[in-house]
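User: Here's a chain of 428 residues. Predict its fold as tokens.
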Amino acid sequence: MTSNLTIFALSSGAPPAGIAVIRVSGPAAFAALTALAGTLPPARTARLRSLRDDKGALLDRALILCFPGPASATGEDLVELHCHGGRAVVAAVLAALGRQSNVRPAQPGEFTRRALSNGRIDLAEARGLADLLSAETERQRVAAISAAEGVVSRQVRAWLTRLSALAARVEAQLDFADEDDVAGDDVALVAVIDGMRTLADEWRSVIAEPPVERLRDGLLVVLAGPPNSGKSTLINLLSQRDVAIVSDIAGTTRDRIEVALVRDGLAYRLTDTAGLTETVDPIERIGVTRAGDAIEQADILLWLGDDAPPRADAVRVHARADQAGRVEMPADRDVAVRQDQPTTIGSLWSIIHARADALVPRIDAISFRAQERAALQQAFEAIATPEDDPVLVAEQLRVASRLLATILGVDATEAMLDSLFGQFCVGK
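Assistant: Prediction complete.
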């Protein structure tokens, strides 16, 4: 990606719209806009200008904002055009920009990547922006905006500061142990080791928190039980859609049926499975095997059978409670559901939500992505068992610091950055 070229893109939604925001960033940004608008307004001051093409034809009248680098979103000279949002207007302005020298269309995520390269944001904040762009639920939005606003970054920097302070004490012990103002060897090393253990305890607690990916991917809720136990009926009631065929014929559901939905701000993947039974039918046997796999993978298992569930943490559902002979709920069930009483489905959802709330990051917790958690886990392993030799302790602290720094993108590779910013839309 060539950073010395100026880039441009539509940064608002696809036209038609009331307003279209076009961004231009790079060393030729001001020159490119001067060619279209004549004089530019003072920095950070919106002014109305007429935009004209290279032949002098009027394209639009737009508000223009100029942000000189490095104090801009990208760290470069940046211009925003607030045009009318019609398709023809946007196309004409983009075409006119494309005819300027040293200016080209931006690649997906390139504005944010330049912000990272120019030190305006770090990698954790960039990842938060990626999650914010794809957020579909309120909990996803809260976790993503927290990361995008630097909550994760500030915590990591605080840990790095503490590691640096511990490392400085070890270095002082190694280099100046014979000086009067440096604590004795044993006292200094014990203090450093205590600091390492305190950090390790904090990291252990963070690592034990639920991963933020559960907010994005959705919690897997699996409905399981023997044939004709009411699984297909229940998934239709829970999702309020006819996603599964309901029949009195045993073995109607032969494969996993999955439906994604959002409820109370959390994303779920409801999965109906084949009835668990002994069978000689090879197709049905495959369905039973897949049902077993789903039971193992489930974040929350709804067990509709009358016998003991395959997992101790299963929610025991007394299904078909509206049928003759099943009106009374056995004492060992958590909830009874009836097709003719929607409140019973609401009761089941309350149980599901209570379970789910314990499986996702707390709304007030600092949420780490999988790659960030992996780096933190490795840093934890580096200092969890401090050595008794100052030289080895110094190395443990160095390794932990290097691993934590990767969360901020210090050692980010081009391949990793290509993968991350490829998730962004053009214009971001």
